[in-house]
Structure prediction request, 321 residues.
Amino acid sequence: MLTPAITAQPVLEFAADVRDGLTKPQKELLSKYLYDDVGSALFEVISVLPEYGLTRADERVLQRNGYDIVERLSLPLVVAELGSGSGKKTRWLLKALARRQHTAYCPIEISPTALAMCKRELGDMDSISIVGFEREYLDGLAEVAARRKSNQHLLVLFLGSTIGNFDRPAGMQFLRDIRGTLLPGDSLLLGTDLLKPIPQLLEAYADPLGVTAAFNKNLLARINHDLGADFELPYFEHVARFNNQARSVEMHLMSKREQTVTIPGAGFSVRFVEGETIWTESSHKYSKDEVFQMAGDSGFRCEAQWIDTEWPFAESLLVAH
Ligand code: AVJ
Prediction:
């Protein structure tokens, strides 16, 4: 059963965020806005590109180690997933869990389309009941935590290196916030993409087919569509850069010339000089030891870690203490 829709992204909030972001000295747009229906579909394509190994690595680790992961959990438990995506890789974990117990699986998503997709993907599984929450991550998690029975543990899934979209301090705060909704003995399975050679990372975020470029530029198309703006997409270029200090891959949209864009729905115009960029996303990359450190600093203990060697990516099991 889906909980009644809480108006997910009111257009006024989008307008305010666009205005705030585009009036900063380094113009920026929040990466969560990349995922409208078109953006989510484009990300599904990105995840099968040969240059972008992240999603396949994430799924491979879960497929190969699902039973081993489930072995380490205290049962009975309820599963909450932050950002269900398509639900495809979660199947491997749920499959392993279903052999041990009937499982309530609670995907938490702000996108109703993604929730529907996930229910369609996983709805056929025996011994799994799906209860979707159309909420922001922490609100949804608090609700799942409040509803569990007193004998049930909670397993939170935060896969796909979504944590990488936060900068390091914000990522740490997010882990502490998750920990704050949990009880000792609950756990968090955290997916993190690991550092790898820079050329490989840049190819993954600037693929030769141009799918990632389309994914990035779609944010401008969305502003045109939702806020009546007049961004001319051909005058912007997709750029991926490695930020050495932050250890992140950044996506930007670079203005190819001097231009002014009007955004009526947000009540302002914005000028670009040639070569100026809008920063749209950062994907932070980690070392495997760093994840142990992050766990320790946020009230967890990293109990085990599984790593894909083909595309270095870690799945870490963090237990709340
Ligand atoms: C879905 C957030 C993990 O940061 O790698 C893919 C999004 N951006 N290509 C990532 C993304 C550009 C992706 N995450």
Remarks:
- Residues 46, 54, 160-162, 164-165, 205, 212, 281, 283 surround N,N,N-trimethyl-histidine (CB under 6 Å).
- The mean pLDDT is 95.
- The longest strand covers residues 300-308.
